[in-house]
Amino acid sequence: MGQQQKVDFNETKHPYLWGSITVFAAIGAIGGAPLLLFVISYAELHNINIATAIIVAILVYVIFAFIVCMIIKGISAIINSRNYYPQKTIEYNITNKRKISADTMVDNWIIQNGIEPVELHIKDIEQWKKTKIDTFKGNARKIEKFNARCALNKGKAFRFVSYRMQTRYQQVNYKKYPYQVRVNNEDVCVSEAFMLERIDFLKKHDFNITYNQYHAVDQRKVLTKSMREQVKRRDNWTCQLCGKIMRDGVGLHIDHIVPISRGGKSMLANLRVLCSKCNGSKGGRLDGDEERDDFYEKDELY
Ligand SMILES: [Zn+2]
Predict the structure, then answer these.
(1) Ligand 1 centroid to 252 CA: how many Å?
(2) Kindly report the CA angle at 61 between 57 and 67, in degrees rounded to 5?
């Protein structure tokens, strides 16, 4: 299942503040000792009070480090600008799945999580645009910059981070111990327009089938084991023509209501359960559409 993360674009982040403090400390740690040695020897050479020299050196160092920090902060403010398009990060677990295409992942995520999270984020974006435009009212140059940034980031409104959990083994005293590692796949970023397009398509098909499944040349391959189970459960292991109940599932066939040969798709709405007798006598037999459930126990495709 995909996990959602709420985007809070009003949040002010200061990751670079801590970064600059680290740099500050690092300069002190590395440069501190030689600097101190230099100051002491310089003071001895020129007959200056050592304590005064150290205080002056520390003051100079603090001012120098402060300037360095401000420069880092300034650069970070530009990089970390809140003008960036609000992005929703979606984690998608693809453990035990073969190579998955980006649209299949997006479609599956929408089917699993519904359209509300998408709509909420698009609402957030609209609100963000409004506040940004209000902020920049009367400042043409800034609006220009802002628009340019938006254009750059429009395609990144939704970021899909797919990962799989891998089992690895550690050997201790001739014994193997399994442990799980998270392996990240490459990220996929899509625009709000793309998401709306996906929702349109899925709505048309009752959130039953992904785009890739819909357009698969071999609709039989789309019919997965879990879909078969779903159809059986939905139809209560009952032949939809004669009403014969077969709890053990043996002899139950999954039938395409509109045959594949006539453009029928392997989606829940187009599937039903038939007993072997009814499926055998169905006219669709000529289409080669009937299949014994246990003959096609193929792996999930994605
Ligand atoms: Zn029957």
Answers:
(1) 9
(2) 150
Indicate which CATH number applies to the domain containing 228: 1.10.30.50
Structure confidence at residue 202 (pLDDT): 93
Tell me, in angstroms, the distance from the centre of ligand 1 to residue 156's CA.
51
DSSP state of 224: -
Cβ burial 277-293 (10 Å sphere, 16+ → b, else e): ebbeebebeeeebbbeb
Domain-ending residue, one of 178, 202, 226:
202
pLDDT classification of 135: cutoffs 50, 70, 90: low
Q: How far does residue 279's CA lie from ligand 1's centre (Å)? A: 7
Give the integer Cα–Cα distance in Å for 163 and 92: 6
Q: Give the Å distance between the CA of 300 and the centre of ligand 1.
A: 28
- What's the total number of domains in the chain? 3
Containing domain of residue 70, as a range? 15-79
| 101 vs 106: CA distance, rounded Å | 9
pLDDT in tens, 225-267: 888 999 999 999 999 999 988 888 778 899 999 999 888 999 8
